[in-house]
Amino acid sequence: MKFLFVAEYFPPFVMGGAEISLKILVDELVKHDHEVTVLTPNYNSFKTEIEENDNLKIIRFKSFRSFLFKKKEKTSHKIYKKTKPFFYLFLNQYINYSSYEIRKNVEKILKKDNFDIIHANNLESILALNCIKTSAKKIAHLRDFGLFCYNRGLENNGNLCSGCSTNNLSSCMYTKGIINKLLLLEMKKRIKILSKLSSFDLLIAISKFVKQQYVNILGVDENKIEVIYNPISYDIVSNLSKEETRKLLNLPKNKKIILFVGSLIEKKGAHLIPKIAEKLEDYLFVVIGDGILKELFLKNSKDNIIYCGYLPISKIKHFYRASDILLVPSLWHEPFGRVVMEGAYNGCYVIGSNRGGIPEVIDWLKCGVYVEPKIENFIKEIEKFEENKNKIKEFKLGRYDYYGMFMASIKKIL
After folding, report:
1. Please, which residues bridge with residue 41 across strands?
2. pLDDT (tens digit per residue) in 121-133
């Protein structure tokens, strides 16, 4: 079969789990002798570059994104909160232009080549493909809620948002008046253009939680949405023992180690870590990530917190293996929770919040517990670790056939 994958980002330009999952899927399809083309903006330079290798072609098209994709120091939380409404007004225009740019490049390819399947990986690619008419079957991957939610996580001060409205925008965007009306107008226009995603032949949600929100808020036909959990590759699994990784990372042999991996922002619950560590002085907390709350850890004076900053997967996997507990204290409604899967595959006991797809993934992998994200609840479950740790087994990579599930969904629409 011939596949065209349209993506805002593709490795080595990785913004998160969406790109990691797409790369794993592309590699599997190529391995099974399918012809795969990936269309993505070029972030290296302002020109089109094409890579070809066996059944895989990667077209990195000329894009103004190359001037915007620069690593910059993140702003403070206070400044972000004040400028958030204006940021999203600008972001709307950026998304509109980017979707137009992607659409034009897809149309250019379709004039020269035919495909069996065209796949949109995220927000802008879905908006782009939604407007294209083609004989190929169109698939959209629903990885978050960006199609109808500005913060892409349906998070409104700790509550699950019911969708954009004047009141909800005032609460989650800290705005009112004309700015509030403009934001609401832009979102209504986007939802109208999407029209329940009716132009797509198949929708793939990364969790049952994600599927339900698209049904509830966007009115999508639930029979049109298949749920396929995100994949994982051998790259994230450490081949060392717990003892070997602790020696490699210079971590104590006899301490109970609690790991946090993720963006250092409030919606990920990063600000709770120092408060939890203060109450559990006998435990060692290791924090990996970057974000607007990193000052909490850079200025930290507590002996039981180690801040490692941002690390690549090649190093993170050994921290997973070295740790006893993976703490996932998210306050927002995670669409899936990839870190849960990564920790489970490396033998971590997971203590997560009861938000979004996190409980679903923990139950699926049988790798831990989830609670209302409050400090006292996390402390209670950490203290019960010795009692509960033997109830789980390390999840084996071969037990989940992601490629098989994807192809089974494809066959239903052919």
Report:
1. 61
2. 989 999 999 989 9
